Amino acid sequence: MGILNLTPDSFSGDGLLAAGLDAADALAATLAAARGMASAGVQYLDIGAESTRPNAQPLDSDAECARLLPVLQALAGQPWRAGLRISVDTRHAQTAARVLALGVDTINDVSGLADPAMLEVLRASPCEVVAMHALSVPVDPALTLPLQADAVQAVLDWKVATLQRVQAAGLDPQRLLLDPGIGFGKTPTQSLALLLGAPALVASGGRWLVGHSRKSFLKLFTPADAAGRDDLTLQASAALAHAGVQVLRVHAVARHAQLFDQLCG
Hints:
The protein is an alpha/beta fold. The protein contains nine helices and eight strands. It has a single domain (about 1-265), classed as Dihydropteroate synthase-like (TIM Barrel).
């Protein structure tokens, strides 16, 4: 899953709404980035318009859609888009309803389906659903699991509760991808524990997505800024793939494609 950030303030420094770009240039840059990811062989393109980094400015649905809809409409006419699953990263039910009407394949809800209205929207659609474990959105660094908590067990307990809510809302749990939410309400050590605990998550059943790319827990191993953490991200990705994680949400998609060609070749 390739990450396409339609934000000016992405933590990873790859936001496509950079200051100084007019609307036409921003759209052209976005389409070029998307095409590059498609050429690299991603199965998913995950498009987000609201930053969830610490201290990020929350967006309402109208502002979010003002960023999303022109891109989704432009993608629909691209021949290279065929076979590529389009995912929209949103926690807003109104946004989900509007993008699903444009043919989006997957809704990636970073709030873990916390809003009952989101469940109502999803029940009316056959789309795939990603639910992420988070204690706060945007991230509040002061709000984490207790320091001595077993992060893997906390996510497994959340998984059980989430599946119960999904089934009670009338959604088929087979539609669900589960994201342990690395960096969302976890200390760096707890995020590392989730990465190392991926075999236990996978063994518990269900389908799993992990978004670990360039995240700040990697500062445990390097002083590099976000864009300088791709080597460590690749090492983590190899371990996650070996553990059986089905979807890896990453920035450096071409390097990942090359890595997996080598590992599988």
